[in-house]
Amino acid sequence: MRTKFYIHIGVHKTGTKSIQHTLSENRRELLRHGINSLSGDPNHGPVLMSLLSDAPHRDSRNIRRHVDTPEKAAAYNASAQYAVVKSLRRNRSPKFVISGEGLSPRKPQEIERLKQMLAPYAGDYRIIVYDRDPYEYANSASLQRLKNGGVLDVPDKKFPLPKYRRNLSRWINAFGRENVDIRIFDPK
């Protein structure tokens, strides 16, 4: 079955976790309406970023999981690839949602790998991204850094700024502007 993929490339600080948990908590109801998604963690980003990466053993999330050598990363990715492909093969829904926080800044070759992974099952694509006012984004990211024990005056820590133009142009180049839905995030 050819499926329309809705790929939510979650920019940090734009309600991504809320979207993912809503999708996950309502998975059965969505399936009844012909909308499927990857099972497992509501955030599909970490698994996909590992699968798409040139050096998955250097990814901070993999390192925290002790997937910190090329051999461990290869084994992890083989298992993850099997689970993702199994989910795609079993899909019978006309719509399929993938939501990954942190997918927006992927490199062009990583985006192309995602597209190749989905191509055997894809009839169409819709990339969805929420962008936030850069000042509000930087403010929210800085506050999050403080909550996590960080400090703002560390010289080697860059001030968090979104790189919307660079990141979105990569997705537009891969999928076409007509398939990229850019929305403005507003917590209200």
Write a brief structural summary.
By secondary structure, the protein is of the alpha/beta class. It contains 8 helices and 5 strands, in the order βααβαααβαβααβ. The protein has helices at residues 16-25, 27-32, 45-52, 60-64, 70-90, 108-118, 134-147, 164-175, and strands at residues 3-10, 35-37, 95-101, 122-131, 180-184.
The low-confidence parts are none
**Main beta sheet:** 5 strands, parallel
Question: What is the mean pLDDT?
Answer: 89
SSE order, one letter for each helix or strand? EHHEHHHEHEHHE
Which sequence of strands runs across the widest sheet? Answer: 2-3-1-4-5
The count of strands amounts to 5
> What is the beta-strand fraction?
15-25%
Round the Cα radius of gyration to an integer and report it: 17 Å
The 3D shape can be described as: globular
The helical percent reads 40-55%
Give the N-terminus to C-terminus distance in angstroms. Answer: 38 Å
Number of helices: 8
Broad structural category: alpha/beta
Report on this model:
The protein has 188 residues and is α/β, with parallel strands linked by helices. 46% of the residues lie in helices and 18% in strands. It has eight helices and five strands. The protein has helices at residues 16-25, 27-32, 45-52, 60-64, 70-90, 108-118, 134-147, 164-175, and strands at residues 3-10, 35-37, 95-101, 122-131, 180-184. The protein has a five-stranded parallel sheet, sandwiched between helices. Helix 6 packs parallel to helix 8. It is globular, with a radius of gyration of 17 Å. It starts with a strand and ends with a strand.
